Amino acid sequence: MVKLDVAIKKTGKILLLLFISVFILTVFLFTAETYLLLRYSKKLISVILNNETGSFKDTYSKWNKHSGFFLKIVKPVISGAGLDLWETAAKNLPEILGYNGKKVYFVLLQNNTELRPTGGFLGSYAKLSFNNGALKDIVVQDIYIPDGQLKGHVDPPIPIQLAFRQGWFKLRDANWDPDFPTSAKVISWFFEKGNEEKQDGIIAINLELLKDILKITGPLYLPDYKLTVDENNFYQVAQANSEADFFPGSTQKTNILSALSEVIFVKLKNFNSEDLVKLAKIFYKNLNTRQILVNFEDKKINVFFQKLNWGGSLKKVVLEKDKINDYLYTVEANLGANKANKYVSREIKQEIDFSEKGRAKERIKIVFKNTGTYFTPVKPFYLGVDYLNYLRLYLPKTAEKIIVKVEQDVLDKKNIFVEQKEEFNLKGIGFFITIPVLSQKSVDISYELPFEISETGRKIPYAIMIQKQPGINSLPYSLILIKDGKSILSTDKNLLQDTEIKAEIMYN
Asked: What is the pLDDT of residues 455-468, one digit of tens each?
């Protein structure tokens, strides 16, 4: 018996030593591979940004090798979309960077203080040209340059026509459709008609991304302007230099953005490993929160980004028996030609009553607040003014008996625009609402959502997808589900990204 105890103790010690050895070896491999991966990541970025085309193949090969080994170590412990993206990006990186032929991408610089459906007003764009795995050129242009090349006439969406009292559709307003792949096609068409070269992808970014990058780089000095730009004054500096004495076709906005881009790229070339990790986290966060939207001509790559919810697409509602699939997407468009959104907030409260079998009675209340203090536009910032908002709500296409009230006044049907998104099984309703400075205004929307139940005495799954509009940082949202006069679910959330909420409804 004593010998058995001694044998057990020895075996335990051996197993413990084995475990410690494996643990130490794993940590060593992880640390070593992390170091090598960061080293070659930095080298690869340097090759791309410094246009070292002759070094791309060898550097990419070494980076890809260590990237694959690193993934093998972390995959048993960590999984998720980020690692899937990593693998796919690693595999397709040469193609994306034009190793087998030139690639051109247009990066739309959206000003989300003037909110538009895909994020913000299209004031400028950057044209990135890649060849042989390196960045050959980056040019920042004002959106009015290709706009001014457009010949012929295109009728605008009716809300734009009503707000601006103009009868033409332009590139600057082309991100009108909240489904980014649809808007990307329209934008691409306008670029082509504006004598721009064909692009291989369109990427939309909001000011939030640039502000986040400035948090890493720190203050940047622009010698041509004798200005220092940081995360706190970036907007004011860009706006002051673009709006002062501005006219369509003028270059001051593109000039300061070009100068800032050049300084940022110089800074990126000298980033250390810690800064590269921070930068990767920033891009990952902005992709998840829809402050970056991407659309590629390559369908294979594009499908993957859509699966990660980084393509800016509307969600498709699946209509099923014995299951209630709900949807809500509120989309704002600032049609006041100002930057009122810097001072505008919103809050959504939704209440759904399931007391009647086969029918959900829904009520949505949206409260807008405008804390701006000026009653007329003030140059050069055009801030603190009345907010002329064309508001759209996207609901399941089966929604019926829709009533819209603005401050208790029921809107006439002629003031409500209805659009069908059949490919998504959605119905959109749109209307104008103005929120004056130093005030708040509420909107109430009620409707009924029919659904089919084949049998009683069972719980029916319910799920609602709430999408958050790009350009909005966070969306306060509360949901109450009611059945037979009792609350069965109550939740308050501050939505930073698209969110699905699930419940079960019992029908006896």
From this structure: 777 889 999 999 99
**How far is Cα 368 from Cα 476, in angstroms, rounded to an integer?**
11
Q: Which residue has the tokens 């940590």?
A: 27
Q: Are 293 and 203 in contact (CB under 8 A)?
A: yes
Report the sign of the C-alpha dihedral through residues 429, 433, 435, 441, in that order: negative
Structural element, H or E, at residue 20: helix 2-49
Question: In terms of pLDDT, which residue wins out, 205 or 378?
Answer: 205
Burial of 252 (0-12, 13-18, 19+ CB in 10 A): middle
pTM value is: 0.87
Q: Give CA torsion, residues 139, 143, 146, 147, to 10 deg.
A: 180
Give Cα 134 distance to the centre of its chain. 26
The gap from C-alpha 355 to its chain's centroid, in whole angstroms, comes to 37
Strand, coil or helix: what is 253?
A: helix
Which pLDDT score is estimated for 23? 40
CA distance 125 to 146: 10
Give the integer Cα–Cα distance in Å for 157 and 400: 24
Report the run of H or E that residue 488 belongs to, with start and end. strand 486-495
Half-sphere exposure of 418 (CA within 13 A, CB side): 16
Q: How many CB atoms are closer than 10 A to CB 228?
A: 12
Are residues 480 and 501 in contact, defined by beta-carbon separation less than 8 angstroms? Answer: no
CB 281 within 8 A of CB 209: no
Q: Which residue has the tokens 């004011």?
A: 236
Query: Residues 6 or more apart from 55 whose CB is under 8 A from it?
Result: 47
- 46: phi then psi, degrees, rounded to nearest 5: -60, -40
**Which residues lie below 8 Å from residue 218, measured CB to CB, with a gap of 6+?**
230
Question: b vs e for 346-385, b when ≥16 Cβ sit within 10 Å of the residue's Cβ?
Answer: bbbbbbbbbeeeeebbbebbbbbbbebebeebeeebbbbb
Range in 78-82, 239-243, 261-265 the model is least confident about = 78-82
Q: Whole-angstrom Cα distance, residue 61 to residue 43? A: 12
pLDDT above 50 (res 473): yes
DSSP helix/strand/coil, 445: strand
CA pair distance 428, 325, nearest whole angstrom: 16
Name which of 112, 115, 106, 176 is nearest 143 in CA terms: 106
